[in-house]
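Title: Comparing notes on inverse folding

I've been comparing how different people in this forum approach sequence design from structure. To keep things fair, I'm posting one structure and asking everyone to reply with a full sequence. Here's the target:
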């Protein structure tokens, strides 16, 4: 078979498999076979790049990251809907419609809680996707929408120009896994699938959007050149025939039928794979819609019935404290089981001490609970009249419940954080930071290997990396694999790193890579830094009182001192090797912007620091120079506004000579 013919056949076969899997939910191809065909297509496209087409399944993984989203003017406005909150209000809406349209017929559809987008096709090829924005101007998110596998990239028998409107959402199962991963990593949780979907669709890097596994339901035909339809339901059936994933609908004529359908959607919504926050009632007749028209805000032919949140009472039996990977203590309420939004709830987050104090939540209280965004259990408050006489105010512990180290409150927030350098709850994250490129730069220690080392009991602290044996590492790989020897060599080589890398690797709060360099140059050795008091620390440029307090507190911790001694015994370098002899840039702050042709950004910053200067990421009145490369943007504009001297790359090179 000729390459062109094979590419066409593979593209057709794989797109059909995608359609059956993501739209019909009826897969007919094993995953192994799909992956095999996809790899074959990738090989052919690499060998024959001229055969790559926009509808190729290989283009679903995410393209090049963007610097910003372009604005898009919608050819057909994406109107919002009028909300109604009772069946009586809904009856008023249908009465108004009946005055203009005799014997009206309606569609009732679930109101998917996601992000509204417009998809545009030319001659059947997907060319652009945009967010709703204000209804007239949105943002071009085409590359991110290409990663949504239920959106067809090419349509058969399509008109010259077609625009459809749909709701991008994150399936509940995907949302729950995403939040589980974020919680394990100590990252803030998404409140609900809608926020997660909106945040994912507006990622500048499409590869991130691809990992979020977004989905879509199309609910309106905006424009279809050369075709005339009489009803909305006819347009939905037409779109389904083009292989779009279309919102389910039910036709209703009487108010009783509408009310019954709304109740049925409400009753079944917790079994749906996606989150909904209501039901949409639309006039089916398109000529009637045109006659009714729209107000300045809403179409007169549709209304969105919003379901009220379900709130129940239960008893709080216990408050347990969990320690995340970043050391943050998170209190969690254990409550009597209660059926809420389709599932049995037994616990709810209490966020932090401020939340508990503000709502005066105590063990034994009867609390009012709901699901925020219909997903995450949330305590709204207590029922004071049902409080037991012996209930006392609750306060989070002063020491970490996992390792016993002292707990400190974040200077810039409400979080309480464990200060233990060897806390088991933080071990995975601490190891990953310690071995990262800008820290000790130990290549070969991926997340999975770290997990295996921890599970085997080989490491309880970052310092334990330097005591690993070849035998211990070899047990994690297949016999004969060279990776263990390479990893051991990388660990050994990291002992010779400059002190600045070690300081950053220790993970002291408020101490980033640049502060690590300043501390190394100011003190010369880790021992001198460990002995410094807060007053001496604040004499280092850019080290304020909060950072100084954090450094001094870290070195006072018994766990920190234990880890430092383990590192010393292992032979890790504690001295600064980068002595500054030429201080031509001392007291000067540089900001780099745009693309540099003679340096990477890291190389240019290293040159600045080599001569005693400082590289910053933002422009202010204190900035000494802005070095502007090609396509310099907002930083250059701000420099001009503030009167900060701007250097070309050539002028910067002259300063280095």
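Reply #1:
Here's my take.
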């Amino acid at each position: 078979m000729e390459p062109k013919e094979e590419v066409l056949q593979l593209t057709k076969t794989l797109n059909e498999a995608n359609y059956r899997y993501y739209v019909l939910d009826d897969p007919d191809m094993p995953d192994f076979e799909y992956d095999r065909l996809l790899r074959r297509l990738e090989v052919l496209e690499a060998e024959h790049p001229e055969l790559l087409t926009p509808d190729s399944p290989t283009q679903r993984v995410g393209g090049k990251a963007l610097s910003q989203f372009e604005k898009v003017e919608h050819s057909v406005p994406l109107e919002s809907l009028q909300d109604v909150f009772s069946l009586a209000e809904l009856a008023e809406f249908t009465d108004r419609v009946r005055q203009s349209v005799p014997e009206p017929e309606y569609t009732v559809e679930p109101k998917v809680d996601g992000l509204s987008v417009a998809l545009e096709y030319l001659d059947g090829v997907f060319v652009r996707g945009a967010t709703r924005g204000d209804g007239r101007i949105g943002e071009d998110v085409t590359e991110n929408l290409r990663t949504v596998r239920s959106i067809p990239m090419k349509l058969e028998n399509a008109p010259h120009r077609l625009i459809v409107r749909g709701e991008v959402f994150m399936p509940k199962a995907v949302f729950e896994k995403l939040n589980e991963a974020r919680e394990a990593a100590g990252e803030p949780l998404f409140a609900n699938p809608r926020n997660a979907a909106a945040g994912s669709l507006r990622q500048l890097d499409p590869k991130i959007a691809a990992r979020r596994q977004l989905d879509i339901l199309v609910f309106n035909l905006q424009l279809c050149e050369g075709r005339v339809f009489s009803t909305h339901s006819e347009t939905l059936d037409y779109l389904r025939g083009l292989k779009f994933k279309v919102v389910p609908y039910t036709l209703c004529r009487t108010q009783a039928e509408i009310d019954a359908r709304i109740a049925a959607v409400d009753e079944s919504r917790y079994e749906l794979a996606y989150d909904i926050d209501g039901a949409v009632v639309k006039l089916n007749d398109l000529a009637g819609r045109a006659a009714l028209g729209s107000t300045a805000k809403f179409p007169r032919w549709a209304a969105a019935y919003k379901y009220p949140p379900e709130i129940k009472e239960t008893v709080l039996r216990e408050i347990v404290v969990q320690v995340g990977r970043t050391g943050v203590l998170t209190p969690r309420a254990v409550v009597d089981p209660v059926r809420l939004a389709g599932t049995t709830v037994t616990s709810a987050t209490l966020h932090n001490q401020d939340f508990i104090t503000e709502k005066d939540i105590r063990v034994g209280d009867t609390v009012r609970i709901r699901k925020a965004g219909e997903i995450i259990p949330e305590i709204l408050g207590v029922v004071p009249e049902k409080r037991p006489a012996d209930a006392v105010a609750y306060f989070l512990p002063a020491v970490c419940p996992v390792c016993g180290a002292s707990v400190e409150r974040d200077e810039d927030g409400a979080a309480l954080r464990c200060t233990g350098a060897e806390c088991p709850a933080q071990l995975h994250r601490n190891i990953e930071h310690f071995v990262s490129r800008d820290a000790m730069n130990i290549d070969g220690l991926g997340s999975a290997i770290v997990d295996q080392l921890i599970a085997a009991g080989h490491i309880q602290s970052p310092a334990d990396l330097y005591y690993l044996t070849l035998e211990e590492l070899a047990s994690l790989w297949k016999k004969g694999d060279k990776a263990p020897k390479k990893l051991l060599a990388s660990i050994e080589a990291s002992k010779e790193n400059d002190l600045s890398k070690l300081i950053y690797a220790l993970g002291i709060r408020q101490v980033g890579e640049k502060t690590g360099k300043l501390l190394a140059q100011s003190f010369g050795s880790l021992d001198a830094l460990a002995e410094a008091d807060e007053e001496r620390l604040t004499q280092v440029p850019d080290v304020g009182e909060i950072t100084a307090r954090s450094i001094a507190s870290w070195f006072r911790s018994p766990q920190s001192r234990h880890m430092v001694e383990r590192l010393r015994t292992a032979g890790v370098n504690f001295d600064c090797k980068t002595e500054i002899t030429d201080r031509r840039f001392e007291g000067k702050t540089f900001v780099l912007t745009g693309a540099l042709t003679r340096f990477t950004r890291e190389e240019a910053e290293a040159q600045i620091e080599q001569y005693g200067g400082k590289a910053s990421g933002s422009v202010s009145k204190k900035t000494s120079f802005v070095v502007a490369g090609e396509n310099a943007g907002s930083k250059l504009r701000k420099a001009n506004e503030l009167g900060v001297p701007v250097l070309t790359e050539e002028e910067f090179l002259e300063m280095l000579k």
